[in-house]
Every structure is written in C-alpha cells, then in structure tokens.
Amino acid sequence: MIHYRIFEETRELEGRKYESFGVAAFNSEGDMICAVADISPDPEKAMRLARMCEDAALSPIHLIDAAEDYIISDLY
What we know:
The chain has a single domain (3-72), classed as GCC-box Binding Domain, CATH 3.30.730. 30% of the residues lie in helices and 41% in strands. It contains 2 helices and 3 strands, in the order βββαα. By secondary structure, the chain is an alpha+beta fold. A 3-stranded antiparallel β-sheet has the order 1-2-3.
C-alpha cells in the first residue's frame, strides 16, 4: 500500500527564502518512491492533496499529474 505524506522545505525565489510544502509517496516499507515539492506555502493545501491521493489509492507514477491538476483546480 502507498502512503502519501507532506514535507516542508525552505525554497528560494529571486533571492527571497520561503517555506513550502510538498507531497511524497512512500511504500509499505517506508521508502520514499517519489515526491512533488513546492505545492503550496499552506500546509493544509498540501495535506488535502496527500489525502486525496491516498483516498484514491493513486499510483505514484501519477503524482506529478495529480499535483498539477490539483493546483489549477477549484479545490486548491
């Protein structure tokens, strides 16, 4: 089973640092399979995507597409 979790990182844009959240997929052994960084500076928005991916049992190969669709959707 795949689990999706958020992670936080410090990013930089035009010399200005900011905190941002991404979503990562983990296998049942706890190994990270893939990740999409810089989804949102709002942890709730990243958490919403992680929950949707987990509820849908999303294959990790679709995480990038799911993140792109989520960001442009009304759910974001």
